[in-house]
Amino acid sequence: MGNNIFTYAPKELTTDAFLKWLFIELDVNEALKEFQSDVFAGLGLCARGDSISAIRVDLQVEQIDLLLRYKVNAVDRKILFENKTWTTFHSNQLQRYPATKNGKGADDHIYLKLSYVHSEERKHVVEAGFRVVGSGDLRQALDPIADRHLLIGQYCEYLDTEFILPRAAIEKALEEGVDNDIFRMGGAQKIFLDQIRERLGDSVSTWMKVGTNRGGSPWSELEFCKAENLYGDSNETVFLRLDKRAGKYYARLNQYADTDAKYLSPKKWRLKKLREFASPFAVELGLTEGKLSNSGRIESEIAIFFVEENGLHKLREKLPLLMERFAERYREFDRRLEE
Prior knowledge:
Helix content: 40-55%
Strand content: 25-35%
Low-confidence stretches: none
Structural class: alpha+beta
CATH topology of the largest domain: Trna Endonuclease, Chain: A, domain 1
Strand order of the largest sheet: 1-2-3-4-5
CATH class of the largest domain: Alpha Beta
CATH architecture of the largest domain: 3-Layer(aba) Sandwich
Distance between the termini: 62 Å
Shape: elongated
Number of strands: 10
Radius of gyration: 24 Å
Number of domains: 2
């Protein structure tokens, strides 16, 4: 990618600004006007060939990223956009914004996200009444005008280079299963964990979290067991984490509980039991366990499986089975803190 302006402005506000500019430019630029209906139809905002007029775009009104008002064949329409690049929704955004003065009565609610939308995220978005539009959908909608304006061409190049092509490469590498270092890419971790979650189905409730370590390397985790207020006011959770140790990537079951000192002994007792649950399942499923660390106080290792020793395909196939059996045993174990 050459000297593309969007590589210097990868934040979510850039998406807001580009979309506002795009909707207005399609209306005022005679060279683009004939494609206005095609682009709108590509985004699901009208039918192909409809007449579009009276464009009005507002940003950050009552914290709504973008409100698009227009007429389709002389009929008023209002669309609410929640735009994301790498992050996900938070603080009941998807429930609050449609209920605001400006958000009420919207004809459609669009959750536009450029990076990967995992299946649990998509489920919550749809349940909130939003329609998911991804980078591939946006790129396809812009295709008729990609070579008709420099700025639009650069944005399409940005979508291709930063999101669409890397995701295709990751999915291909995961399917081939031969790159033991594929998790160096944060997107690969999310897609792999999503494949795990989809194999679990509805048998286990899950939620995905992502982040970066000191130094910038990515980590991702999938929470799948939880005991609320187990240690006084503190919860205990168990999650599957993808990360790296000594240059080697792994999938690890972790116990997490930020407890008071008085609960350290029962937490260690539960950790011992959780390890005893996980290990026989791993052996039965043919997974090779790595050496556990006992150094964690808040976050403790239950089981660890290095990619190099097990392979991507085996981990993808066997980990959901292990997690499902472990979750069932965890529910039976309930809230015990001692023998």
